[in-house]
Amino acid sequence: MSEIVNHYINGRIVESSSGRQGNVFNPATGEIVRQVAFANTAEVDAAVQAARGAFASWAATPPLSRARVMFRLKSLLEDNMDELAKVVTEEHGKTHVDAKGSITRGIEVIEFACGMPQLLKGEVTEDVGAGIDAYCIRQPLGVCVGITPFNFPAMVPLWMAPIAIAAGNTFILKPSEKDPSFSLRLAELFKEAGVPDGVFNVLQGDKDAVNGLLEHPDVAAVSFVGATPTAEYIYRTGCAHNKRVQALGGAKNHMVILPDADMDQASDAIMGAAYGSAGERCMAISVAVAVGDGVADQLIERLAPRVRALKVGPGTDPEVEMGPLVSKDHYDKVMGYIDAGVREGATLAVDGRDLSLQGYENGYFMGGSIFDNVKTDMSIYREEIFGPVLSVVRAPDYKAATKMVNEHEFGNGTAIFTRDGDAARHFANSVQIGMVGINVPIPVPMAFHSFGGWKRSLFGDHHMHGMEGVRFYTKMKAVTSRWPTGIRSGADFSIPTLG
Ligand code: NAD
């Protein structure tokens, strides 16, 4: 019987007795490498009760002591980086160097969380009235849940847990069932760093586990990252059960290229942003909006030979630039979109469908594709493909290009490539998108800023990490106090004012 990825509750691995489990594949070989447990209601409750039981004493632990745990966690992740990246590559498929990069971006959130004593400092006003002082403090919420997608099994959980825990909450991670193993290594490292039992828990599972967490009365807050239909469902269901919810969804990120852009710089940018991690990034560039036919022609002339020459192979090979897609289902879905684009009349300038790798015939590999002459009513333009497929749309001018970006249902990221400062400034200030790059293709904010899209790329009010993360994982309390005692103003039956 193959290895089972189990839950981690109250400081130890807990074997599931639900009788339900899923297969975990190595996408480079198509082999089942292990199974993952699917939690039942009793296991959901066990995780919540462990987190609830640990909350009071963790919340009462001084912020500086909580921050010191984060310093240790950072060192442990760095010390184990190579092995952790291998875990990510084996189940997700991304290249080893890309896996390491994603862990580094997660470590940066831990570094931000190390500053929690400073971040939690409140506000004080002396003498709001005679002998009366007022102050505001931020306090933790209780049991917080993180539900995460397959494409960043390390980074996205690390967007959430370090800030939630450093702020004094306890946490339950429900990772993607496609690549669950990193979550258990993270749990072990949290423990080694000094987090008390019950503060960080992992619950494996599918939608039953998610529903159990969303409906559980002892869960205070839910952070979600995944596809838009799931995000909208999580947001509505979580809110209906009185939880604070932030739910980040899918994307269709446009890169607008103006005629004055440096075309070599723009095509370099597209190569990494469209085909890195096989396009399975929520900040991938999937649409290039070329302003003017000349720009489209120049771009395709530069991109086509490079896309045909992409080194596709297993993520363990250091020469490889693009690994496999995550699963057979996802591979079929991306293939289906390429077929649909051809049917709908787009020009398939580079066709990545016909790729077979010797020794990896059962892996989910696909070459890069480029569609030209894509129109805004085509499914390959409207929907998120989440694969190595770039759509080039030709726009007559800047106004038409930005209208396209603004009218798309998703609003995660966008970029403009130009040498015109006026145009760049106008774009950044007026575009209806949450994260904007100017001559930067994947404008992922650093840990001390916040990450989040607009429109149907985010449900809820708070973005992730940075100060938005601190605000999400804490609630504000305002205290008004009168010292010294003995000051009397008599009984007053009207609202207090400073007369
Ligand atoms: P997904 O929505 O299928 O799954 C995400 C999580 O939700 C998983 O843990 C899964 O078990 C759970 N889930 C799935 N279906 C569910 C259901 N019906 N009910 C309850 N829970 C359910 O997403 P995915 O395929 O793992 O990830 C890819 C998607 O994530 C893409 O759309 C991508 O754009 C998006 N994403 C967004 C961001 C962002 O920051 N906006 C970041 C990374 C990924």
Distance between the termini: 78 Å
| Tally of contiguous helical segments | 16
Question: What hetero molecules are bound to the protein chains?
Answer: nicotinamide-adenine-dinucleotide
Shape: globular
Largest sheet: 7 strands, mixed
Helix content bin: 25-40%
Structural class: alpha/beta
List the helices and strands and how they pair.
Layout: E1 4-5, E2 7-9, E3 12-14, E4 21-26, E5 31-37, H1 41-59, H2 63-79, H3 81-92, H4 96-113, H5 116-119, E6 123-129, E7 132-140, E8 143-147, H6 155-166, E9 170-174, H7 181-193, E10 200-202, H8 207-215, E11 219-225, H9 228-240, E12 244-248, E13 253-257, H10 263-275, E14 285-291, H11 293-308, H12 328-344, E15 347-350, E16 369-372, H13 379-382, E17 389-395, H14 398-407, E18 410-411, E19 413-417, H15 421-430, E20 435-438, E21 454-455, E22 458-459, H16 466-472, E23 474-482
Parallel strand pairs: 1-5, 8-9, 8-11, 9-10, 11-12, 13-14, 13-19, 14-17, 16-17, 19-20
Antiparallel strand pairs: 2-3, 4-5, 6-7, 7-23, 12-22, 15-16, 18-21
What labels would you give this structure?
499 residues; alpha/beta; 7-stranded mixed β-sheet; 6-stranded mixed β-sheet; globular; binds nicotinamide-adenine-dinucleotide
Question: What report would you give on this structure?
Answer:
- This protein is of the alpha/beta class.
- Helices cover 39% and strands 23% of the residues.
- The protein contains 16 helices and 23 strands.
- A 7-stranded mixed sheet has the order 15-16-17-14-13-19-20, with helices on both faces.
- Strand 19 (413-417), helix 15 (421-430) and strand 20 form a beta-alpha-beta unit.
- Helix 2 crosses helix 7 (181-193).
- The longest helix has 19 residues, at 41-59.
- The protein starts with a strand and ends in a 17-residue tail after the last strand.
- The relative contact order is 0.14.
- Nicotinamide-adenine-dinucleotide is lined by residues 147-152, 156, 174, 176-177, 206-207, 210, 225-227, 230, 233, 248-251, 282, 384, 386, 412, 453, 457.
